[in-house]
TrEMBL record:
PROSITE patterns: ADH_SHORT. SMART domains: PKS_KR (SM00822). InterPro entries: KR_dom, NAD(P)-bd_dom_sf, Peroxisomal_Beta-Oxidation, Sc_DH/Rdtase_CS, SDR_fam. This is SDR family NAD(P)-dependent oxidoreductase. It comes from the Bacteria. Belongs to the short-chain dehydrogenases/reductases (SDR) family.
């Protein structure tokens, strides 16, 4: 694709677009990508954690910080929820730097609400940014990746999607959809040497700060999460964008402080067959009891990741 692998600057010669890069996780990724030699399009619409308002300052400040450190970067304030906006981001990379090699779909919003109180307009807004957004940006970049026979996508999913959480039906559905989108991209574009992977990030960000802490246990968990700085997600992201991981595609990772996990994907746990087929009664009396020992509990991400990070 571009220059050969350099362990000190693993993105030398590459052009990377990072969405939601004005703050938090995206900012850390943009800065580390630039430190490793990438030319960066710093996209951030400048909205609040719930997707309201617009302020181009955060993205411009990150781009300026990269340039002040000797790197190359431009700011972009288009919305990922707009396909035309996604096309403009990609075109800006081409106009400014001549190519595009990597896309990090990091932009997201939260509007927490218990399911029976979830407003349809909040569902639409969260899905538009968190699921349609990654589709828009990935689809806009895909023809260019195909044309140059190479490229890498990294998408941010969530433990709320992979495991579960209260009050996040829309966010969880969107973020689980991102994992299926990533796998589909990996399958469809493997022939063009295009990779697609997901990261489930654990970090203290503006979005996490909007999650209500209604019980002492939840407030204690929030305090623990404050120890997980968003820049800890950047090394895994930059590695997945680089040629050093050129064989890695279709995977879901989690990054939690100094821990990295490979997350599972759905596979059959147990199968049963009954000669002559099944009736509802036989399913309830035979199949369900036989499978019950392998049922998943109604746990949350805090139940599965219940230890303090180090």
């Amino acid at each position: 694709m571009t220059e050969s692998y350099n362990p000190d600057r693993v993105l030398d010669g590459k052009v990377v677009l990072v969405t939601g890069a004005g703050r938090g996780i995206g900012r850390g990724i943009a800065l580390l990508a630039a430190a490793h030699g990438a030319k960066v399009v710093v996209n951030d619409v400048g909205a609040s954690g719930t997707g309201e308002g617009q302020d181009t300052t955060p993205g411009e400040e990150v781009a300026a910080e990269i340039r002040a450190s000797g790197g190359e970067a431009v700011a972009n304030a288009d919305s990922v929820a707009s396909y035309a906006g996604a096309e403009r981001m990609v075109q800006q990379a081409l106009d400014c730097f001549g190519r595009i090699d990597g896309v990090v779909n990091n932009a997201g919003i939260l509007r927490d609400a218990i399911f029976h109180k979830l407003a349809p307009e909040d569902w639409d807004a969260v899905v538009a940014v968190n699921l349609t957004g990654p589709f828009n940006v990935s689809r806009a970049a895909a023809p260019h990746f195909r044309g140059q026979n190479g490229g890498a996508f990294v998408h941010m999913t969530s433990a709320s999607a992979l495991i579960g959480n209260f009050g996040q039906a829309h966010y969880s559905a969107a973020k689980l959809g991102v994992t299926a989108l990533s796998k589909s991209i990996a399958l469809d574009m493997q022939r063009f040497n295009v990779r697609s992977n997901c990261i489930c990030p654990f970090a203290w960000t503006r979005l996490v700060a909007t999650i209500p802490g209604d019980t002492p246990a939840e407030r204690e968990r929030v305090e623990r999460m404050k120890q997980m700085s968003p820049d800890k997600i950047a090394p895994l992201t930059v590695s997945l964008l680089s040629d050093a991981t050129a064989e890695v595609t279709g995977q879901i990772f989690a990054s939690r402080n100094h821990e990295i996990f490979l997350m599972g994907q759905s596979r059959p746990l147990r199968g049963m067959q009954r000669e002559g087929g099944w009736t509802p009664h036989h399913i309830a009396s035979h199949a369900i009891p036989a499978m019950r020992a392998m049922f998943y509990p109604l746990d949350r991400s805090s139940d599965v990741f219940g230890w303090d990070p180090v």
